[in-house]
Amino acid sequence: EGNPEKAKEKYKEAEDIYRALKISLKTQTLGDDVGKFFEREMIVRRKQMSRFAPLRIISKLAHITTGYGEKVGNIFNTAIWVIISCALLYGIEGVSYRGYILGFFGDVEQLGGMLFVIGNLFYFSVVVFSTVGFGDIVPIGPLGKSIMIIEGIVGGLIMAILIIALYKQLMDR
By 3-state DSSP, what share of the chain in percent is helix, strand and coil, each rounded to 5? Predict the structure, then answer.
């Protein structure tokens, strides 16, 4: 109807209903349904915030990437997306590998071609994402080091969310 105040009121009512249903289902140990109602509760809570509020944007990002910790498939897709994106970003500046520059503009021919370079950049990205850090490949410049820091932090967070989501799914069944 174009009435933002009425819409907020209805969203607040929906949030209260979803919360009550979630609590009721939790006492009955119906884990699948609890997760669905939790996600709906978070969505209507987000809709009550102003359109470009930072918290609303963060909430939307959490919904897309992890389904608020309820969708394991979204979490896996986000992890793969982060790994591939960072591998491509590492390829721009290059990384040091056995005295060579491993990157799109580095020593591609001396290392065996572009497929070898892309494979090793992907390997490096997985090692950074999982926070294992073998040390056989290292970033060269400030861009690579910055990406490595961000990927390590994001990787740790995504892995924690994934473990929690898997635990919730396994324990609720």
Answer: 75, 5, 20
> Which of 168 and 155 is assigned the larger pLDDT?
155
In this predicted structure, the answer to whether residue 35 has a pLDDT above a threshold of 90 is no
- pLDDT digits over 58-97, tens only? 999 999 999 988 889 999 999 999 999 999 999 999 999 9
State yes or no: pLDDT of 1 exceeds 80. Answer: no
Strand order in the sheet with 95-97: 100-102, 95-97, 137-139
Which DSSP letter does residue 101 get?
E
Name the CA dihedral angle for 80, 95, 142, 133, rounded to a multiple of 10 degrees.
60
Residue with tokens 């090692």: 127
State how far the Cα of 35 lies from the Cα of 68, in Å rounded to an integer. 9
Taking each helix axis from N to C end, the angle separating 4-27 and 31-47, rounded to the nearest 10 degrees, works out to 160
Task: Say how many C-beta atoms besides its own lie within 10 A of residue 115's C-beta.
Answer: 9
- Nearest of 51, 28, 25, 49 to residue 36 by alpha carbon: 25
CB atoms within 10 A of CB 168: 17
